[in-house]
Amino acid sequence: MNDTAVLKFGGTSVKSIARIQHVCRIVESLSQSRPVVVVVSAMGDTTDYLLKLARQVSSSPDKRELDLLLSTGEQISIALTAMTLRQMGVRALSFTGGQVGIFTENVHNKARIVDINGDVIERALADGRVVVVAGFQGVNEKGDITTLGRGGSDTTAVALAVSLGAGVCDIYTDVDGIYTADPNVISGARLLSRISYGEVLEMARLGAQVIHPRAVELARRYGIKLRVRNTFHPEMEGTTIDQGENMEIFRTVSGVAIDKDQACVAIMDVPDQPGIAARITQALCEENIVIDMIMQSFHPTIGLNNITFTVNDSDLDQTINSLSALKDELRAREVLADPDIAKVSLIGAGLVGQPTIPAKLFGVLGANGINIKMISSSEMKITCVVARQQADRAAALIHQAFELDAVCDTRA
Ligand code: ADP
Ligand code: ASP
Ligand code: MG
Fold this sequence. Notes:
There is one protein chain. The chain is an alpha/beta fold. The chain folds into 2 domains: 5-245, 3-Layer(aba) Sandwich (Carbamate kinase); 256-403, VC0802-like, CATH 3.30.2130. The chain is 34% helix and 27% strand. It is built from 11 helices and 18 strands. The strands form 4 sheets. It has an 8-stranded mixed sheet, with helices on both faces. β11 and β12 form a beta hairpin. The radius of gyration is 22 Å and the shape is globular. It starts with a strand and ends in an 11-residue tail after the last helix.
């Protein structure tokens, strides 16, 4: 491990020139004592804007071309950040993902990093430069630009920390750290000073967009300590994410997450025979569509099954297209979709084997007239699918029922 500082600034932190100048002051002050690598996202809502442009051209834009377009958002940010730093007298150099050897698999829109050739950054650091890298992008073996999936700049930062041998990666954002729930939705959400990789990974996978789940996975695999901090209050310590030794003994539940970017799909009346579920998942796998909460309900008298699952709503059209193409082959009656759902999840390292927890969770939703459409649970989470317009209220009720505003917290 070395003392290279790897800092990532999200879209809200670089939304305007004034904010870029603020970010650069943080970088400039740190660069006086340590080598610094800065990863930046696209400015504000630039990625959403670029996606909207692409959709005006095509309802399902070519994935290679889309990556080329989306990657330009981060390119604007790195150039402006490096220019601002130079204006302040800091010897900065900016690079795209491809320029610093971030190699990804040959998949577009959600590519995973396979390797980083750290030579370019190491040479620049050795030359006393502050290195500014575009988040969210890489290059595949054909030399085509790829992107890592929405929110992927966090993953770029952690991957660079791994490749450079830095022990810590700071994720600067627009809130003070990781809270027990989205502080912009749940007023009583409590800031956590420390949380384990496992807990935050569940939160991130279940919709807490404060950090990209793959960034947490990578940090856990390579033992990189993450700190989530507020760009606008850099004096605060934020939240530390690490192994969380000894944490389970004092905190059973750690948070509530809401994911509104979800949709539910059902394939009705498929024959109850081997190979059906495999055929469905293969078809979706070919399109790189991630499915979750897969449920099969069996009607013993008629020998037919319904298979239901959730997908990210950006994959809904493609999912319906793929399954509709399979409908006759599967001898299914119909493919149904519900685009207005959300997942609300309770997360905690101590959920396993505690029967009172699901009873309390389902009880509070039932007592308040919130219908649960699907349920799934595992060691560290219980997820309920509810109507999207009820999701915030459901999360607030759960947060209150489990007294998360007073959850045990320590920096031990
Ligand atoms: P950035 O642009 O810095 O990447 P994001 O918008 O991706 O920022 O993530 C920060 C946002 O995540 C916060 O503004 C907050 O609304 C949301 N969020 C959701 N769940 C949580 C949570 N448990 N703790 C903190 N923030 C959360
Ligand atoms: N700009 C990309 C997005 O909006 C990546 C990121 O911000 O992390 O998803
Ligand atoms: Mg983000």
